[in-house]
Amino acid sequence: MNNSQVLNQVRFFAQQKMQNDQTGHGFDHILRVVKNASYILEHESQPADPMITLTAAYLHDIADDKLVADPQQSEQQLQQFLTKIGFSAEQNKQILLITHNMSFSKSLEKPISLPFCGQIVQDADRLDAIGAIGIVRAVYYGGAHQETIYDPAIAPRSEFSKAEYRDLTHETIINHFYEKLLKLAKMMNTATAKQLAHQRQQFMLNFLAEFQTEWQGKK
Ligand code: ADP
Ligand code: NI
Fold first, then answer.
1. C-alpha of 64 from chain center
2. pLDDT digits (tens, 9 = 90+) for 105-122
3. Distance from the CA of 138 to the center of ligand 1, in angstroms?
4. Which residue from 109, 180, 184 has its CB within 8 A of the most atoms of ligand 1, so it is best to mutate?
């Protein structure tokens, strides 16, 4: 198999696994993350292995502990699949290292510094969590988890563990912007993503300002 045939297999595998998601992590999210990763790859001067980067982008949510009941089993399946389509043990390791460590929630418990390929995928995923798409995904996720829209009596938390972050009892969709989404622009690794994040950040700030105006009944 040549590289583009391998990527087609990876894409198909990701589609099978993600197409039933109802929380904003569906195959459409995966395709946008792959597009973002390709864009960053093209625009960064530092080289990165495109096969590792794009494969990790396609597969980054497959063994996520908030999406699957048994993440370890999903990682094993992923490794078997990668081996079957011709990735070496070393490539396998590189891809799993990225998918296992790139998430925001992971950074709350045991942050590790990612190789450049992983930094690109992390930026690509974070770009899809902000801006207009980010707003829709947060509302969609909040709806799927019976989260409150907003409560002025509940202040956004400034520090939290992974378990606290996942506990939505006192969480509101609007607080999620202050606890995570507005922080992402500054957390981007690459200059390309930092630049793209700027406009998306401004869009979220405008949205939040308008939300407050309407919530308070100001005209
Ligand atoms: P990661 O996979 O990097 O750990 P998260 O699981 O924190 O990322 O979030 C993935 C996306 O799910 C977020 O960008 C956001 O759109 C949505 N999300 C996560 N937690 C919440 C929440 N408490 N309220 C609303 N949306 C959320
Ligand atoms: Ni993702």
1. 10
2. 888 887 789 999 999 999
3. 7
4. 180
Give the predicted TM-score (pTM) of the model: 0.95
Tokens of 165: 């972050």
Taken in order of first residue, the domains within the chain and their CATH numbers are: 3-215 (1.10.3210.50)
Torsion sign, CA atoms 60, 48, 32, 184: positive
Task: Give, using CA atoms, the residue closest to atom 8 of ligand 1.
Answer: 104
Confirm if 208 and 134 have CB atoms less than 8 A apart. no
Structure confidence by residue, pLDDT tens digits, 45-93: 999 999 999 999 999 999 888 888 898 999 999 999 999 999 999 999 9
- Nearest ligand 1 atom to alpha carbon 134: 16
Identify the residue whose tokens are 């995928």: 121
